[in-house]
Amino acid sequence: MNCNVKLPKSADGLPFVSILISNWNGEEVTDRCIASLLEFTHYPNNKFNIIVVDDGSTDNSVKFLRQKYLKRIDLIALENNVGFIKGNNAGIKYIIEEYDPHYILLLNNDTQAMQKDWLKKLVETAEQDEKIGMVGLKLMFPDGRIQWSGRRKESKPLFLIFQTISAGFNPGVGKDEKEANYASFIGEANTASGACMLVKTELFRKIGLLDERLAPMFGEDVEYSFRAWKSGYKVVYRGDVDIIHYESYTIEKFKKELQNKKTYWALRNGMIISRTYFGFWKTLVFGLPIFAVAALLDKKDKSAGLKIRNMKFREGAVKNISLLFKAMHDGLLCRKCLPETQYENSCSVQ
Questions:
Q1: Taking the model in full, what pTM does it have?
Q2: What is the pLDDT of residues 218-239, one digit of tens each?
Q3: What is the pLDDT of residues 274-285, one digit of tens each?
Q4: Helix or strand or coil: residue 312?
Q5: Contacting residues for 340 by C-beta, under 8 A, at least 6 apart
Q6: How far from 3 is each of 7, 95, 209, CA to CA, in Å?
Q7: Distance from C-alpha of 119 to C-alpha of 37, rounded to nearest angstrom
Q8: What is the rounded CA–CA span in Å between residue 22 and residue 54?
Q9: How far, in whole angstroms, is CA 269 from its chain's centroid?
Q10: Cβ partners under 8 Å of residue 92, min gap 6
């Protein structure tokens, strides 16, 4: 496939979009997600499709989804649980090989569409400029408060390194949408959220898939955003488009088993991303204090903003310090542990 050839639009000018959802033991939330897409996505039915990658679920997900959505979705059932990043990469490869759409929209299964024109607005934004590679939107808690919003693109390493591990300083987080109109800007941003981000298929061909150094999860959206704008593409945030995100459904469902791993993955991946894009010394000088704070402190109210009065010490200081040093070793100090890059090269997705 020639990566320099721009795909033709359909006869009526609307580009085709494939929506990719990753599921792992999430029968109920995935059902709710798909149902909301079918109800609220006012986009021609012949111009979008839904693909679900089941990541080795052990519940009734595969059987249920096949029976209920037999003619509405493509279901890719992986034999083993490979993690969020590798599962999405398997789905992206399948979509490009089978459908070759103009856009692929990565969507978490614990999301719920609530605006009829949400997809149309994202596509319209992406179509304005051939250099727009990714478009993100605003994530909302079910109670109407802002969970995630875009932060205008900046160049200061301190804030960008902080972005690798938290979006807590992004506009309006934890506030009512009516009180935070500044979170509804439309323009270039540091990152798009992987919970719902529209990506031009051309981008996957030119700069590769999600970075599997970060497997199984965390930070892949930040890394891909940084890689996109480093490669000359724009990452755009559209704050007037909302979607509900129930956030970390899988982590909360398996909290006891995954809590320590979650902290380690977040710290390690933040260091990998920072080292890749800002170098070892900036990561050490600017990043280490950030990662240390993230290892030792947590928010009292997960749905509130990142403020001093909302912070508390994590339980098990010794354990958390140990996780920090392991993450430092694996993500920053040990060059042999992880290669500099581990994603598909240009044109490798055929």
A1: 0.91
A2: 999 999 999 999 999 999 999 9
A3: 999 999 999 999
A4: strand
A5: 276
A6: 10, 16, 14
A7: 10
A8: 6
A9: 13
A10: 20, 104, 204, 209, 210, 349
